[in-house]
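Project standup — Tuesday

K.O.: blocked on the structure for the chain from last sprint. Re-posting the sequence here as requested.
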Amino acid sequence: VQLVGSGGGSVESGGSLRLSCAAFGYAYSTDCMGWFRQAPGKEREGVAFIDDDGTARYADSVKGRFTISKDNAKNTLYLQMNSLKPEDTAMYYCAARWSRCSIDNVFADSSYKYWGQGTQVTVSS
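H.V.: unblocked you, prediction finished:
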């Protein structure tokens, strides 16, 4: 079981990036997949999550700017990030778990079993 994240980079404020997370093994069959991020000196926080039926949940800080999606044919999770801000700068991690995203602890990183290696996003002002 493996998650491999990619797509990070450096952009100016207002720019866009799309992160990808390829899932191998049972990871793509899990009930809930999503993205966390961690900025230097800060705790890891949940960003966006998607159930196997396509239902998505977002942190308030990214609503209307980020879109999470899945391509079942490619076993790949995506995070389209638009209108990026300097405060979006962080290491982004994809994650997966066996319980559905609709459960209230969806933003709790301890509830996720599988993790990608992280991809850096840097937004300059």
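K.O.: great, moving the ticket to review. The radius of gyration is 13 Å. Residues 66 and 81 are 4 Å apart (CA to CA).
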